[in-house]
Amino acid sequence: MPDPTPYPLDQLIERGSAQAPALALRDRTLTYEELRNGVARLAGWLASKRDKGDRVASWAAKGELTCLLPLAAARAGLVHVPINPLLKRAQVAHILSDSGAALLIGTKARLGSLEDGDVPPGCVTIDEAETFSLAETENTIVPPSSHDAEELAAILYTSGSTGKPKGVMLSHANMWLGAVSVAHYLGMESDDVTLAVLPLSFDYGQNQLLSTWYAGGCVVPLDYLFPRDVAKACGKHGVTTLAAVPPLWAQLTDLDWPAEAVSSMRRLTNSGGALTLELVRDMQSIFPKTRIFPMYGLTEAFRSTYLDPALVDTHPTSMGRAIPFAEILVIADDGSLAEPGQEGELVHCGPLVAHGYWQDGKRTRERFKAAPDMSEYGGTAVWSGDRVTRDADGLLYFVGRRDAMIKSSGNRISPQEIESAALGTGLVAEAVALGVEDERLGHAIHLVVRPARDAAEPETALPRALQKELPNFMQPHVIHWRDALPLNPNGKIDRTAIAAEIGA
Description:
Elements: E1 21-24, E2 29-31, H1 32-49, E3 55-59, H2 64-75, E4 79-82, H3 89-99, E5 103-106, H4 108-113, E6 124-127, H5 128-138, E7 152-157, E8 167-171, H6 172-186, E9 193-196, H7 203-215, E10 218-221, H8 227-237, E11 241-244, H9 246-252, H10 259-264, E12 267-270, H11 277-286, E13 291-296, E14 305-306, E15 318-322, E16 327-331, E17 344-349, H12 361-367, E18 368-370, E19 380-390, E20 396-401, E21 406-408, E22 411-413, H13 415-424, E23 428-438, E24 442-451, H14 458-469, E25 478-481, H15 495-502
Parallel strand pairs: 3-4, 3-5, 5-6, 9-10, 9-11, 11-12, 12-13, 24-25
Antiparallel strand pairs: 1-2, 7-8, 13-14, 14-15, 15-20, 16-17, 17-19, 18-19, 19-20, 21-22, 23-24
Helix pairs in contact: 1-2, 1-5, 6-7
């Protein structure tokens, strides 16, 4: 078990060797010494502009500013609010207002897209291009902080799949221990190179930076236009670690990868949805010597589980076991600890649990509750709403979302089960099952799919295949064929958009 002692988040970059590469930008590479100097100077400028506890938001593409700001804001005693650069002005306006941001740093074009009333009173906007010159002119250096690790360090806004985005409050301890945990179970070393392709505005993306820097490795931030840009960057920089979500993996496995990118890769990680067996096999075919880490997590508890790469072949559909510093319980509907094979709610306990939702007591009370009596950690736990089972060996399996269950003809049906059956036919590459209100059935089952490459007559073959795989009450009433499924700003399949399109 790694060291469970949390420290102020900004101290992560003190671990790397001074002259080792830390951040590979487009035009230059910062050493750890240069990274430390940049964070110290940026923190000094921030501290002179805002009071401790103020929220500072960023709305910009990946680059030096967005990579340094999480640590610089933490060192200055401020709370960082990273905003996904793909969001539109209405969503940004909500985040600025909800967080009470006192400062917004963004690219000129993005700031120019905001309209009157989008920026709350008292919030100052600053062009990203001016920030470093202002910090250099002021040249105030702030040394590593000694903040209480339980102080708030960041507010990460969820994608808003069920309404407006809500801000998850993360402490220094949450983010420090998350970095330690991931670096430990991934086996990261100081010579690792991580290609940061995921948005830095959510936990999975942010941890690309933090876990790498904890290990003393180098981060290569990349905003890609095409999947082939990812493969090219991996070859150019000798990338050893690549994290993605299933829709991106589906695109990446369609590419011809350069030999140098394959030979340098040590690990591939996945979260934000389950890998299909087809995807796993495609990844293994391209990267035969690379370890694959399927993972499960939620912003409210950072990360919960991972599957040991040694078990991927034998248990490809499993979520794995708890990560370091996480206690994962499966709680049956009667409040007891679920027996092996019995379905229950996944409950996450331990020091990775966030501090609730920013200024939203109602939703905080719904998700953040007292840990079950059998918890070793106790305190507050996240009740995920996800339905899972645990087998006799302790491996977890996803069943479905409690609030996403389809109720048809008196049956409670997991969308995941229908989706897995569809994907298992090999006829479709992506699938989303939803319930559409129906007077007779309660819910009619609608299945939205993207055909697999080279699938032979999938529109007639899929219904026949599903008749073999699923009971009558689980058969889709309507199948919608799409050339592509919409993605949300985090790169996940946008189930909300699909639901709106088909009237679910």
